[in-house]
Automatic annotation (TrEMBL):
The chain crosses the membrane at residues 7-27, 496-516. One of its GO terms (biological process) is GPI anchor biosynthetic process. This is Calcineurin-like phosphoesterase domain-containing protein. The keyword Transmembrane helix applies. Keywords: Membrane, Transmembrane, Transmembrane helix. GO terms for cellular component: endoplasmic reticulum; membrane.
Amino acid sequence: MFLISVLRYAFFLLVPLSLIFTSYLYLYPAFHGCAFPSPEYDASEAYVNTLRKHALPNLYDAKKVAPFRLLALGDPQLEGESSIRDIDSVNLPNLKKFFKDSGMSSGTKHTLLQRVRHSLHDIIDFWLDDLPKAFEVYRKRFDHIGNDYYLGHIYHATHWWLDPTHVAVLGDLVGSQWIDDDEFEERGRRYWNRVFKHGERIPDEVMSQPAFEFQDTIILGDDAAAWKRRIINVAGNHDVGYAGDISRDRVARFERVFGKANYELRFQLPYNDTGSISTTVGNVDVRDIPEIRIVILNDMNLDTPVSDKDLQDESYRFLNDLISTSHAVERSALFTMVLTHIPLYKDEGICVDGPFFDFFEGEFENGVKEQNHLSRDASRGILEGIFGMSGSAEVAGQGMGRRGVVVTGHDHEGCDIYHHINQSSPEEEREWKCNRYTEAKRVADQSGIPGLREITVRSMMGDFAGNAGLLSLWFDRESWEWQFEFVNCGLGTQHIWWFVHILDFITLIVGIVYGARSAALKVRLILGFDGNGKKGGKRGKKVTFEMMPSTSRVVPEKLMGKAGTSNEEVKGVVNGSSR
């Protein structure tokens, strides 16, 4: 009975705690106030409208929601068997050696004393070496499984609550470029079946190459359900390697499992959402069709030295094709979004990661071994090439370039900055600079200062609070230009996920044990068993009654009246025995 009481009180305490913490975990985007930025620039209204979508659908206002909503996730870095040390310890080598040295598994030439000495060493090594290492291997494997579901929880919770139109993972999908093909395939399987379950690889025919007569433009909103499931995967250094160790085989396996490394997507607003279309014809105001150009760029080998010059030539050929097939910089209603892994160059102290390059020595053509940013030249090539910006006002569009944004990963801490160049500075001092976006808002969109925002999305790994980036893009009909805004939505460290699920598991076990013990007790009571499993009944002294013949003494009338007319007297005899 005492155990049942303890279980009952524990269960009644654990159930509400489990409900509270589990509700928080699975509804954390709602508790944290997460919502895609709205065209009204009102964060509270955006959150309330998102809440209405789930709680009061009839009051949900779809007009207050941006037509393009990107869920941006950075650097999941799935680990695997190669990251586990002493993996052979699960085979218990010292235990096997014990059986061999003791002569139990096969014959041995050692003397009895030698066998005893070796066997004792083997047993000690088994307990102090094999078992701790084997335990650590299984712990790491279990941790990998939990990490997969933690990352998957971030994706599924934000995807359900926020309802994005598109999803992108900004590189470092796996944790190492050095793994063999079998393990790469295994991590890819986990990526699609655990982390991004129900997500889909973009079909090859949809991932288009730049062309003058681009035929694959997609109407924004067409096939919306499919695009919500599709994952735009960007190649990172842990996927294909840096410039010094990137190889054609690594790129090929990445493209086979996750999608092409270089391609573009174009989306246009539906005709009925744009009003009228292109320049003035007669009395009809004809304007450019609002279009979004998304560039998925493998920037891993834009810097030198490289181990594979042909691969670098392919990357620069793709960049040149992008530039040559771009719309004129003067064209309105065009927005260019570059999704890549390594951030553009920035000075020390602006973001957590400062400029850094390291190179191989004597191998891989002494190529780039590691880098935090692209070089100044590669960064300038993207800003001035893809976006058409310039330090000179004498070029097309007065050097102000195309509207757009660069979204990157790699720096796990995340960063939000603004690149700009002052055309009024002396020519010898005219160079690209950058500041944190909050500090640079005063120079954004100023005449004579071309600029571009770059958002480095904080990692979704547990050590970086399980972050997700939310980018909204909408069309302003008054200025006839695209506008965008970005916010973060974080879950918290992986320990929160582990704590809640361990608590739920303990609650489940306590509930099962309590239910089983309570049911067993009820069955025993129904069958008449006591707590010790024996038939129930009162224990103690037994009282028996015997009929004694009457004697010559007179029986009182009152007693006779009670006993009837019988000549026998009722006499109680106490028996001190017990059953």
